[in-house]
């Protein structure tokens, strides 16, 4: 049991630590990051219940519809809602890169609890595969979501557009991920390039967010200096 818990928790904590430590300016309070992680973890229970009802009632017959609505939209919407309602207005969200940290945190909270459940069901031998695919993909969806939420909060214009994209982009990517996994026969041949693209995109967004945070801090310094 201890081995399964360790294998289930370790990938999420490692990925969260990576994005947290990449914050080059004012690191987020650990308590707030942990709280966001717990919010994401708690989302597993209502989402799994809703998905169980969908499956039991056979509401979604098509694999395409199931991938994008039963899984992607449901999971990404709840994570997006937490970020928008709890994190977005909070005083600690004070620079663009913070969206990356909190987006990764809420997604990895969800992914970690989901991972533990799957490992208890399937066995610890699936730990590496789940760390490389479901856990890391959730982290990357969260990074992309957080990037656009950060743009939405700190851009002078088009705030609503960025907030919309903060849900639409991870929804599309997550749906594509699930569609490849549950529909295509030789899914490995499609998943490898998709995951490479996903890592490239998320790391690119994280780098852009750090640059935006640098500009943001420079402007704050200049305003303070000239006062």
UniProtKB/TrEMBL annotation:
Membrane protein topology class: Multi-pass membrane protein
Keyword Cell wall biogenesis/degradation: no
UniProt subcellular location: Cell membrane
Keywords, in A-Z order: Cell membrane, Hydrolase, Membrane, Metalloprotease, Protease, Transmembrane, Transmembrane helix
Entry GO terms, CC: plasma membrane
Transmembrane segments: 6-21, 33-54, 66-88, 100-121, 127-150, 162-180, 186-203
GO MF: metallopeptidase activity
GO biological process: proteolysis
Enzyme type, top EC level: hydrolase
UniProt KW Transmembrane keyword: yes
The EC number(s) this enzyme carries: 3.4.-.-
PANTHER family from the UniProt entry: PROTEASE PRSW
Family statement drawn from the similarity comment of this UniProt entry: Belongs to the protease PrsW family.
NCBIfam families (alphabetical): intramemb_PrsW
Protein task: Involved in the degradation of specific anti-sigma factors.
Protein name: Protease PrsW
Provenance organism: Cytobacillus horneckiae
